[in-house]
Amino acid sequence: MTIALVIYPVFHLNFVLLDDCSAHFIAGATFFFIWSRGMTRIRCLVIVAAWLCVLYQSTVDMYEIEIRIRNDLNPLVIAAIVSTFFVIMGMVSCRQTGVIGRANWLWLGAITYPLYLLHQELGFMIYNVAYTQINVHVLFWSLVIGMLLLAFLIHVAVERPVAKLMKNTLNKLADKLQNQLHCRKSAGD
Predict the structure, then answer these.
(1) CB within 8 A of 24, min separation 6: which ones?
(2) CB of 57 within 8 A of CB of 6?
(3) Dmax of the chain from CA atoms?
(4) What pLDDT score was predicted for residue 72?
(5) Where are the domains of the chain?
(6) What pLDDT, on the 0 to 100 scale, is given for residue 21?
(7) Which residues of the chain carry a pLDDT beneath 70?
(8) How many whole angstroms separate alpha carbon 37 and alpha carbon 93?
(9) What span, in angstroms and rounded, lies between the C-alpha atoms of 30 and 23?
(10) Average confidence score pLDDT of the chain
(11) What is the 3-state secondary structure (H, E, C) of the chain?
(12) What CA–CA distance (Å, rounded) separates 61 from 14?
């Protein structure tokens, strides 16, 4: 469907099906299946199709992004970055990461969601305001380091405490629900 929408774009379907992100999700799910169930020809073809679709989608709107961020982008660099991520995910899913794969990466995984939420909106806002006033390289690396630190702080100060509270609350709710179901079952017997 994603490939069909790239060839024959239909706005309402593009919007509803989130076709600009679906190839990433398809690749991720397929990499998980490769990791959990092994490589097959079909899974390999799905990865190749998703990779080609992501390459196309990453570069087709490049000029609109250049205008928004007021900077030139190189399609070859974009393709190299996208391809590198696909290679890394392929190595992870095929369990070919060696020593790197044995390291504890849990902390990095824990900050990915707050980083995802922060970087695009807050990062772009800061970039757009400071772009003309600060050296581009200093601004870029400051944003990268700042967003990583902020994501880590949000994980430690917000997610961890809220997760414990949410777990306890949901466990109590589940216990109450289970007791009510047990009482109704006993009353019906």
Answers:
(1) 50, 54
(2) yes
(3) 76
(4) 83
(5) 1-103, 104-189
(6) 73
(7) 1-20, 188-189
(8) 10
(9) 10
(10) 84
(11) CHHHHHHCCCHHHHHHHCHHHHHHHHHHHHHHHHHHHCCCHHHHHHHHHHHHHHHHHHHHCHHHHHHHHCCCCCHHHHHHHHHHHHHHHHHHHCCCCHHHHHCCCHHHHHHHHHHHHHHHHHHHHHHHHHCCCCCHHHHHHHHHHHHHHHHHHHHHHHHHHHHHHHHHHHHHHHHHHHHHHHHHHHHHC
(12) 15
**The predicted structure's pLDDT at residue 110:** 83
Separation of alpha carbons 99 and 103, rounded Å? 7
Query: How high is the pLDDT of residue 8?
Result: 57
Q: For 42-64, how does the pLDDT look when each residue is reduced to its tens digit (9 = 90+)?
A: 999 999 999 999 998 888 878 87
The answer to whether the CB of 70 falls within 8 A of the CB of 131 is yes
pLDDT of 173 reads: 93
With a threshold of 0.70, does the pTM exceed it?
A: no
Q: How far apart are the first and last CA of the chain?
A: 51
Cα separation, 149 vs 13, whole angstroms: 37
Nearest Cα residue to 90 out of 75, 101, 99: 101
Cα–Cα nearest to 81, from 70, 89, 71: 89
